[in-house]
Amino acid sequence: MPINSNVYNVNWNKLVSWLTPARLFLPKVFALLKALVSPISSLHGLFISFRKQKLYDLSINSQVCRLEKLLNDKFDSVQRRIYITDGEKSKRKYIFKRSELVPLPVYLDAESNPTFIYKDAEITTITYHFIVNVPLGIKYKEAVINSLLNTYRLPSRKYKLETF
């Protein structure tokens, strides 16, 4: 069940006026009570801004669209030109016996198209899992982008920053 965010909205002046007994509802007493509540009101404002920031942080995860949103919100909020592409895959390697020194194709004699066998580790040898493309016109520090990406990406994923 989602929490209604209106629960956190408190009008402190109205609350003080509601909780003040009628016989104490004098201008000087009301001003004193408002002064006593002002630090709480200030802390409440800090809490609301902290909550808003944490809700944003919780909305970011390792999905490509969320990482792009994070980077564009931080560095390019107007034009939103930062994007992420898939990484580079290296060429496949064939399995063969060392004594043969040639790949071992698997196919029937009637077929003219051989199929080669690969090891699982050799099928997709990825140098980088994804590439973050950043325009030249954006001023950024590479350490800040690396910090953000390392916070939200999956630990097993490698990435590379490229400018275009």
Question: How would you describe this protein?
Answer:
The structure is a single chain. By secondary structure, this protein is an alpha+beta fold. The protein folds into three domains: 5-59, no CATH class; 61-89 and 126-164; 93-121, no CATH class. It is 41% helix and 11% strand. The protein has five helices and five strands. It has helices at residues 12-19, 27-59, 64-75, 120-123, 142-152; strands at residues 83-86, 105-106, 115-116, 130-134, 159-163. The strands form two sheets. The protein has a three-stranded mixed sheet with strand order 1-4-5, covered by helices on one side. A hairpin with an 8-residue loop joins strand 2 and strand 3. The longest helix is centred in the first third of the chain and has 33 residues, at 27-59. The chain is elongated, with a radius of gyration of 30 Å.
Keywords:
single chain; 164 residues; alpha+beta; 3 domains; three-stranded mixed beta sheet; 5 helices; 5 strands
The structure class reads alpha+beta
Helicity range: 40-55%
Distance between the termini: 45 Å
Shape, please? elongated
Cα-based radius of gyration, to the nearest Å: 30 Å
- SSE order, one letter for each helix or strand: HHHEEEHEHE
Whole-number total of structural domains:
3
Q: What's the main sheet like?
A: 3 strands, mixed
